[in-house]
Structure formats: structure tokens, C-alpha cells
Amino acid sequence: MSFAKPLSPAIREIRFLLSQTGPASAGTRQFVQANYPVIKKHNPNLPFMIREATGTPARVFARFERGVEKHVELDNLSSEDVAEKVAQLLS
């Protein structure tokens, strides 16, 4: 999925939880650094939150209309694998 386009209006929030130094979160950190500017450019009003805490397993949560929330685990994944998982979550 290319993140260089507006996401579905049904998506109300994207929230990443990750460790700022842990090796298991390295791919998630790379994904966020590479894709955050593009996602925010095309979805300026979409809350895109990054929560960092030492030892936290890497995960991404998406909140949709009517309070539906889904998440996927991202620990020990490469940046490309994280992109695939996030694309699946948001589709």
C-alpha cells in the first residue's frame, strides 16, 4: 500500500506503541521515520500518535468509526514488513 494518498475517512486514529531503543522495535521506528511525513501530508487532520516507552512491544492500533479498534503486533519485523502489516490493518 502506498501511503501517499488519503486514507479512508472511516479511520479515526492511528497509534504506534514502541520502544525508543529496543532492537525489537527497530523496524517500526524506521517505518515511522520514513512514512510519518507522507501520511500526515495526505491526512493532515488524522491523529497519528507515537507512544514510546522502554521495553514496550511494538504494536500499531487503528481506531475506526463507531469506536471499533484493531491492532497488530510489530515486534521484530523489518520496516517493509511493518508497512505490509499497517496496510492490512488500515484496509
Strand content: 25-35%
* Molecular shape: globular
Unreliable stretches (pLDDT < 50, length at least 5) are none
**Protein structure class:** alpha+beta
Widest sheet, order of strands = 2-1-3-4
Order of helices and strands: EHEEEH
* Mean pLDDT over all positions: 94
The portion of residues assigned to helices is: 25-40%
Describe the sheet with the most strands: 4 strands, mixed
Organism: Vararia minispora EC-137
Protein name: Thioredoxin-like protein
Question: What do you see in this structure?
Answer:
The chain is an alpha+beta fold and 91 residues long. The chain has two helices and four strands. The chain has a four-stranded mixed beta sheet, with helices on one face. Helix 1 (26-42) packs across helix 2 (79-90). It starts with 10 loop residues before the first strand and ends with a helix. This is Thioredoxin-like protein.
